[in-house]
Amino acid sequence: MDTTLLDHKWFWGPGSDHMIKPLDKPLDIYYQSVGRGCVLLLNATPDVSGVIPESHVKRYQEFGDAIGRIYENRKGETSGKRHTLEMSFGKAAAVTHVVTMEDIRHGQIVRSYEVDGLIDGTWRKLAEGTSIGYKRIDVVASTVLEGLRLHVTQSVGQPVIKSFAAY
Fold first, then answer.
1. Cβ atoms of residues 70 and 62 within 8 Å
2. Which of 22, 96, 104, 143 suits 137 as a labelling partner, its CA being 20 to 30 A distant?
3. How far apart, in whole angstroms, are the C-alpha atoms of residue 1 and residue 110?
4. pLDDT tens, 18-56?
Protein backbone atom coordinates (compact mmCIF):
# COMPACT_ATOMS: atom_id res chain seq x y z
CA MET A 1 0.00 0.00 0.00
CA ASP A 2 1.48 3.33 -0.90
CA THR A 3 0.51 6.69 0.51
CA THR A 4 1.90 10.15 1.01
CA LEU A 5 3.38 12.03 3.91
CA LEU A 6 1.56 15.12 2.68
CA ASP A 7 -2.19 15.37 3.06
CA HIS A 8 -3.80 15.16 -0.42
CA LYS A 9 -0.54 15.87 -2.25
CA TRP A 10 1.91 13.42 -3.84
CA PHE A 11 4.82 15.74 -4.56
CA TRP A 12 6.79 18.37 -2.66
CA GLY A 13 5.92 21.98 -3.32
CA PRO A 14 7.02 25.26 -1.80
CA GLY A 15 5.08 26.05 1.35
CA SER A 16 3.71 22.50 1.71
CA ASP A 17 4.99 21.83 5.25
CA HIS A 18 1.56 22.62 6.67
CA MET A 19 0.29 19.59 4.72
CA ILE A 20 2.55 17.10 6.53
CA LYS A 21 0.22 14.56 8.14
CA PRO A 22 0.17 14.60 11.95
CA LEU A 23 1.83 11.51 13.43
CA ASP A 24 -1.45 9.79 14.33
CA LYS A 25 -2.46 9.60 10.63
CA PRO A 26 0.57 7.60 9.40
CA LEU A 27 0.19 5.36 12.47
CA ASP A 28 -3.45 4.67 11.58
CA ILE A 29 -2.35 3.89 8.03
CA TYR A 30 0.32 1.55 9.45
CA TYR A 31 -2.28 -0.37 11.46
CA GLN A 32 -4.63 -0.60 8.46
CA SER A 33 -1.89 -1.79 6.08
CA VAL A 34 0.99 -3.54 7.87
CA GLY A 35 -1.46 -4.52 10.60
CA ARG A 36 -3.45 -6.40 8.00
CA GLY A 37 -0.61 -8.15 6.22
CA CYS A 38 0.39 -5.51 3.63
CA VAL A 39 3.61 -3.70 2.91
CA LEU A 40 3.51 0.06 3.48
CA LEU A 41 5.32 2.46 1.16
CA LEU A 42 5.32 5.95 2.63
CA ASN A 43 6.14 8.20 -0.32
CA ALA A 44 9.27 10.36 -0.01
CA THR A 45 9.25 13.49 -2.18
CA PRO A 46 12.46 15.41 -2.82
CA ASP A 47 12.47 19.16 -3.30
CA VAL A 48 13.84 20.85 -6.45
CA SER A 49 17.43 20.25 -5.27
CA GLY A 50 16.78 16.48 -5.08
CA VAL A 51 16.91 16.41 -1.26
CA ILE A 52 14.16 15.24 1.08
CA PRO A 53 13.16 18.34 3.10
CA GLU A 54 14.27 18.31 6.74
CA SER A 55 10.67 18.73 7.92
CA HIS A 56 9.76 15.50 6.10
CA VAL A 57 12.81 13.66 7.43
CA LYS A 58 11.79 14.71 10.95
CA ARG A 59 8.28 13.22 10.52
CA TYR A 60 9.69 10.02 9.02
CA GLN A 61 11.96 9.69 12.06
CA GLU A 62 9.06 10.34 14.45
CA PHE A 63 7.02 7.70 12.61
CA GLY A 64 9.83 5.14 12.82
CA ASP A 65 10.37 5.89 16.50
CA ALA A 66 6.63 5.47 17.21
CA ILE A 67 6.63 2.06 15.50
CA GLY A 68 9.75 1.06 17.43
CA ARG A 69 8.07 1.95 20.73
CA ILE A 70 5.20 -0.44 19.95
CA TYR A 71 7.58 -3.42 19.85
CA GLU A 72 10.15 -2.50 22.50
CA ASN A 73 8.41 -4.14 25.44
CA ARG A 74 7.06 -7.58 24.57
CA LYS A 75 4.97 -9.02 27.43
CA GLY A 76 4.80 -12.54 26.07
CA GLU A 77 4.76 -14.70 22.95
CA THR A 78 3.67 -18.19 21.98
CA SER A 79 2.97 -20.24 18.86
CA GLY A 80 1.37 -23.52 17.90
CA LYS A 81 -0.84 -25.66 15.68
CA ARG A 82 -4.13 -25.32 17.54
CA HIS A 83 -7.41 -23.43 17.45
CA THR A 84 -6.72 -21.97 20.90
CA LEU A 85 -3.44 -20.58 22.23
CA GLU A 86 -2.92 -19.13 25.69
CA MET A 87 -0.06 -17.28 27.33
CA SER A 88 0.45 -16.21 30.91
CA PHE A 89 2.52 -13.16 31.80
CA GLY A 90 3.58 -14.36 35.26
CA LYS A 91 2.49 -11.02 36.69
CA ALA A 92 -0.20 -8.64 35.45
CA ALA A 93 0.99 -6.37 32.63
CA ALA A 94 -0.49 -3.54 30.57
CA VAL A 95 -1.07 -4.54 26.94
CA THR A 96 -1.89 -2.19 24.04
CA HIS A 97 -1.01 -4.27 20.96
CA VAL A 98 -1.52 -7.92 20.03
CA VAL A 99 0.38 -9.19 16.98
CA THR A 100 -0.62 -12.51 15.44
CA MET A 101 1.05 -14.20 12.48
CA GLU A 102 0.09 -17.34 10.63
CA ASP A 103 2.81 -19.53 9.13
CA ILE A 104 1.69 -18.79 5.60
CA ARG A 105 3.85 -21.56 4.17
CA HIS A 106 0.75 -23.63 5.01
CA GLY A 107 -1.62 -21.07 3.47
CA GLN A 108 -3.93 -18.55 5.06
CA ILE A 109 -6.08 -20.86 7.18
CA VAL A 110 -7.78 -18.59 9.72
CA ARG A 111 -11.09 -17.03 8.65
CA SER A 112 -12.09 -15.49 12.00
CA TYR A 113 -10.66 -15.21 15.49
CA GLU A 114 -11.07 -13.64 18.91
CA VAL A 115 -8.46 -12.34 21.34
CA ASP A 116 -9.35 -12.54 25.04
CA GLY A 117 -7.55 -11.03 28.00
CA LEU A 118 -7.44 -12.59 31.45
CA ILE A 119 -8.58 -9.91 33.88
CA ASP A 120 -8.98 -10.82 37.56
CA GLY A 121 -9.29 -14.49 36.64
CA THR A 122 -11.98 -13.94 33.97
CA TRP A 123 -11.52 -14.06 30.19
CA ARG A 124 -12.87 -10.94 28.43
CA LYS A 125 -12.94 -10.30 24.68
CA LEU A 126 -10.45 -7.61 23.61
CA ALA A 127 -10.51 -7.95 19.82
CA GLU A 128 -11.85 -10.01 16.95
CA GLY A 129 -11.15 -10.21 13.26
CA THR A 130 -11.93 -11.96 10.02
CA SER A 131 -8.43 -13.07 9.02
CA ILE A 132 -4.84 -13.17 10.25
CA GLY A 133 -2.58 -14.09 7.32
CA TYR A 134 1.01 -12.91 7.35
CA LYS A 135 0.43 -10.41 10.17
CA ARG A 136 -2.48 -8.96 12.08
CA ILE A 137 -2.04 -6.14 14.58
CA ASP A 138 -4.91 -5.59 17.00
CA VAL A 139 -4.70 -2.34 18.93
CA VAL A 140 -6.52 -2.63 22.25
CA ALA A 141 -7.26 -0.11 24.96
CA SER A 142 -4.42 -0.25 27.49
CA THR A 143 -5.55 -3.03 29.79
CA VAL A 144 -3.75 -4.74 32.66
CA LEU A 145 -3.89 -8.48 31.95
CA GLU A 146 -2.72 -11.67 33.59
CA GLY A 147 -2.68 -13.49 30.27
CA LEU A 148 -3.91 -13.55 26.71
CA ARG A 149 -5.80 -16.09 24.62
CA LEU A 150 -6.25 -16.49 20.87
CA HIS A 151 -9.26 -18.50 19.80
CA VAL A 152 -9.68 -19.29 16.10
CA THR A 153 -13.44 -19.38 15.62
CA GLN A 154 -13.45 -20.34 11.94
CA SER A 155 -10.79 -21.87 9.71
CA VAL A 156 -10.38 -23.98 6.59
CA GLY A 157 -8.03 -26.39 8.34
CA GLN A 158 -5.67 -26.69 11.26
CA PRO A 159 -4.36 -23.20 12.13
CA VAL A 160 -0.59 -22.85 12.22
CA ILE A 161 0.18 -19.78 14.31
CA LYS A 162 3.79 -18.68 13.86
CA SER A 163 3.57 -16.00 16.53
CA PHE A 164 0.98 -14.70 19.00
CA ALA A 165 2.57 -11.84 20.92
CA ALA A 166 1.53 -9.11 23.35
CA TYR A 167 3.11 -5.67 23.59
1. no
2. 22
3. 22
4. 999 999 999 999 999 999 999 999 989 899 999 999 999
Summarised one tens digit per residue, pLDDT across range 134-164 is 999 999 999 999 999 999 999 999 999 999 9
- Write out the residue limits of the CATH 2.60.120.260 domain(s) in the chain: 76-166
* Burial (Cβ within 10 Å: 0-12, 13-18, ≥19) of residue 120: exposed
| Domain 76-166 CATH (choose: 2.60.120.260, 3.30.70.260, 3.40.630.30, 1.10.10.10) | 2.60.120.260
Whole-angstrom CA distances from 158 to 10, 79, 103, 154, 165 are 44, 13, 11, 10, 20
pLDDT score recorded for residue 132: 97
pLDDT mean across residues, the chain: 96
